[in-house]
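Try it yourself: sequence plus adenosine-5'-diphosphate, in.
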Amino acid sequence: TIYSASSVYSLSNFYSELMKGVGASGRVFELLHLKPAIDPKRGERLNVNGDIQFDHIEFRYPTRPKHAVFKDLNLYVQEGDHICLVGPSGCGKSTVAQLLLRYYFPNRGTIIANDHELDEVSLAFYRNQVGIVQQEPMLFSGTLRENIVYGRRDASKEEVRKVCDLAYCSDFIKGFSEGLDTVIGSKGAQLSGGQKQRVALARTLLLASNVSPEVADRFKLDGNSDVFDDQGNILLGPSILILDEATSALDAHSEEAIRNTLNLRQEAGLTTISIAHRLSTIEMSNKIVVFNAHGEIVEQGEFDTLISDPNSEFNKLLKKTSTGDNVEEI
Ligand code: ADP
Ligand code: MG
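Structure, out:
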């Protein structure tokens, strides 16, 4: 699916919505200062498929210029990979996502997508192909529907219904007398953390993905009609999905929604980057990347290989946790 111009939201809209969503926190001002001196619509309209390379990246947050989060990060994500980033709290996992979403720009080195430096790619076009679900999703005060169609204002009712089903939102939304027109936020209904996450997942699933006709055919043969909208577009989320689990405090519905999404994406060969702490999510990845506290990659490999090696960095990380079944922030 190729997106219509109307579905590409401008960077300035993004910032103003962000302001509404999180209020006058320091973070927003920081982002505003960072507003890049480039026109988000300028540059190449590149379709990304998840072939992404972090090449010798050095990065410092502008507010902490003396602290290099990454000194020389090299990371390769191949199309169709589901890679999982693990490591101690503060090692830079979420920062990888921030850089990939272009909320921040590296101090040195380049990020390359499909053989193109991201600097040359239209930010607006690119952003619509990369989706993120965070622990504290950015919802803004407005209706549930507005929050879900954000980024795809052209979405049909049918599409919205389907993504709500896929993200396990439908039931709790039906519980509100106003349904999708329920206003949320400080002036409206308060959502639990898990409900917010599922709304964010529904929003992310609406972001178009450019799956091949073969993939679309396969889903039809499997009779998995839930993943199609009324125009036959496939609802598997964006070309690159980033899941920042950030905590083990996921409710059962959210976990199931995420597992379903991951399964479908894996079948369709779509790229996912998850920052996960629970073994049940880590297990689903085809490649684990282990960071140390200094933002350096100390190990990469498949789940089975790393877990069966008693001396692996991955196992050391697991042992540092109390329960042994997640690599919770330590
Ligand atoms: P993780 O997700 O692995 O827990 P982060 O990527 O959030 O780690 O953080 C990496 C480092 O960058 C930490 O030292 C953290 O304190 C710092 N950091 C994160 N976000 C910001 C920010 N917005 N401004 C300044 N420093 C930050
Ligand atoms: Mg984090």
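One thing you can check immediately is this: Residues 252-268 form the longest helix (17 residues).
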